[in-house]
Amino acid sequence: MPSALSYRPLTPADRRRLQTLCIACSDFFECIEGQPGGRETAAELLGPLTPDVSSGEKSLVGVEIGRELVGVVELLAGFPGPQEWYVGLLLLHPERRGAGAGTAIWDHLRQRMTREGATTVRLIVQQQNPRARRFWERQGFAVEREMVATAGKLESAVWLLRRDLQAPAPHAVAAQQGSPCR
Questions:
Q1: What proportions of the chain, in percent to the nearest 5, are helix, strand and coil?
Q2: Could you read off the pLDDT of 125-177 as tens digits, one per residue?
Q3: Is the separation of the CB atoms in 171 and 139 below 8 Å?
Q4: How many Å apart are CA 128 and CA 180, to the nearest integer?
């Protein structure tokens, strides 16, 4: 299945497809934001950077199998520094989780970031989502620090994870199936 993945930028014309994906992934949004995914979530993802982000260029990448939108990745290039990137979101349809698609998506992103001159990648994982932390650690990320952040209706303790892109890739570990927050 991961070999059938294709990637393309999402635009406002993809709003309905993105909304459908966000609704299908409500388990994730309930866990992280305390509210289901839907129209507002899709609009936020397609919208501009929030005012608290002072630099960087946002892109929203759709992950497709055939014409089906099965995932989305929100990226911020040049944040907080010129050669640093930030993964704001890697969201995968529940039926596609646990079969290697997340690792295939990360491999694609890592190659893109490296080609575009990135040296460091960061992301945040909420502490109520330890499965996500295990996934990112298998991809070579490590905790840089702990802090508190607000997402949707929830204020949560989070881990800020970091990976140096010059570091060798870790050995793949089989993905675990199940809810994103267990």
A1: 30, 35, 35
A2: 999 899 999 999 999 999 999 988 888 787 888 999 999 998 555 544 444 44
A3: no
A4: 9
